[in-house]
Structure formats: structure tokens, C-alpha cells
Design brief:
This protein is mainly alpha-helical and 79 residues long. It has helices at residues 7-31, 36-50, 56-67, 70-78.
Length: 79
């Protein structure tokens, strides 16, 4: 991402990435293959991603740790 990028476009991209990661976490929880500790961690991450007040760096870190390379996965899903 460049510095000259339109803030509205960046906000829209962040919203799309957040929605994708929340859906990804929902699928993980519905799968039922997580142990209790991991399930609790995923629910906490999902709650923080949905919260409006979560700072951007924390949001990005949560998406990276819980969803892996979410941008590449989103691109692969589109194709």
C-alpha cells in the first residue's frame, strides 16, 4: 500500500478484509475441530475484529495471526 492511496479506498479495503476474516473465523468455529483453548482464542479475536474501537495495528495483527495470509486467500477465493 502506498502513502498516496485514497483514505476512503483504504477504509473500504480494510472493511472487506475484516468481514472476510470474521467469516473465516466463523467457519473455524462451526467446524467443531478446535480444542477449547483455541476456540476461546478465536472467539476473542472475532469479538475484537467486530469492535469499532480496536486500533488498526491490533486489528491487522489479529487478522494475520488468526487467518494467516488473508490477502492471498481472499484473492485466491475471488478467482
Amino acid at each position: 500500500m502506498g502513502e498516496e492511496e485514497d483514505p476512503a479506498k483504504a477504509a473500504l479495503q480494510l472493511a472487506a478484509e475484516t468481514v472476510w476474516c470474521v467469516e473465516f473465523l466463523d467457519k473455524l468455529l462451526e467446524g467443531g475441530k478446535l480444542n477449547e483453548k483455541k476456540s476461546k482464542e478465536v472467539r476473542k479475536a472475532r469479538k475484537l475484529l467486530k469492535a469499532e474501537g480496536t486500533p488498526l495495528p491490533q486489528r491487522r495483527q489479529l487478522m494475520r495471526t488468526q487467518c494467516g495470509d488473508y490477502r492471498a486467500k481472499m484473492k485466491a477465493e475471488e478467482e
